[in-house]
Amino acid sequence: METKIWSVSASQPEPEIIKQAATLIRQGGLVAFPTETVYGLGADGLNPQAVEKIFKAKERPTDNPLILHVADFATVGRLARQVDERATKLISAFWPGPLTLVLPKQKSIPNEVTAGLDTVAIRMPRHPVALALIKASGTPLAAPSANRSGYPSPTTGQHVYTDLAGRIEAILESGPTGVGLESTVLDLSGTVPVVWRPGGVSLEELTAILGTVEMKTDLKYTHYAPRAEVVLLQGSTVKVAAKIKALVDDYSGQGKKIGLLLTAETWIELGEMVEKSAVLYQQNLGSSSHLENIARIIYRELRNCDLAGVEIILTETYQRKGLGVALMNRLLKSANGQVINV
Ligand code: AMP
Ligand code: MG
Known about the structure:
The chain is an alpha/beta fold. Helix content is 36%, strand content 19%. It folds into two domains: 4-215, DHBP synthase; 229-341, 3-Layer(aba) Sandwich (Rossmann fold), CATH 3.40.50.11030. It has helices at residues 15-26, 48-58, 74-79, 85-94, 111-114, 128-137, 157-164, 203-210, 237-253, 264-270, 291-308, 323-334, and strands at residues 4-7, 31-34, 39-44, 67-69, 99-104, 119-123, 141-142, 170-173, 184-187, 194-197, 214-215, 229-234, 258-262, 281-284, 312-316, 340-341. Strands 1-8-2-3-7-4-6-5-9-10-11 form an eleven-stranded mixed sheet, sandwiched between helices. Strands 14-13-15-12-16 form a five-stranded parallel sheet, sandwiched between helices. Helix 1 (15-26) crosses helix 6 (128-137). The model has no long low-confidence stretch (mean pLDDT 97). Bound molecules: adenosine monophosphate and magnesium ion. Residues 64-65, 67, 102, 114, 117, 119-121, 144-145, 182, 185, 187, 196-197 line the site of adenosine monophosphate (AMP).
């Protein structure tokens, strides 16, 4: 199959293009589209055969459930058996936006979407292209991130093309996404709200509305991992810089191809310490006091390391506050749960 790429305006998506994409969705096809978090791979969420194609195209384990994306509030009541006061409050505070709610599901939702669970994950994205596509399709869109399973999520149409060309009908392309990390997944099906995945809405923002929130994240699947090995360093800027110098000497001595993804502060500390020729790819991620900028480009930079042929990525940890919780969750997964304290 040849994958069509349609360029579309991010702020005012052209109706004719959206209409063609929606037709593919209604025919049971797969269309990738931008959201404010990352690019999603959409299918008609009420059509089991269409949903199955998502798992095939991504090579995603079928026991990993999908999020249903809606464009209006009324649809939530048709998908969830129960929308309690907590859900209503969160919806009015954060939708449209990067918060996914897990609620008891209605029987009509295919098991393929929920991996047989009695709950369903629902979100209303904020991106005009996503909203227009859902509306024109007239059905909730099941849409995981539009990457090969396990690999860093796509934040541009080009990333989607690299991963899924020939496997999906079309890509709606409208430039890089804003948040750069996935939505927060919050489970409201029990008495205590549980965060399964930290994301674009912070724990602090949720706690302000809900009181107690539990966080339970697991390492069940390899996730967000580039082909290169990721080495995550934690400590003061001075010590991290010294460790990087030592590791670059070591690894380059072994003939390894090294990538450095570091904050502005660490680059300043490193100065001339690192031999330029020993490093294959390097990027300044900006200041660690602007995590939103780092989140926006981190997946692109992990992918760029692979494109350059890097074998070992040296990068650093962040304060687990605000968006830092989500950022650290992704980095830890890409580093197989390992941190080097210096
Ligand atoms: P993705 O869209 O690929 O970024 O991933 C969707 C995320 O939502 C995964 O972390 C799923 O495990 C999670 N999810 C989807 N449905 C449910 C559910 N019913 N209960 C708990 N987590 C869910
Ligand atoms: Mg994903």
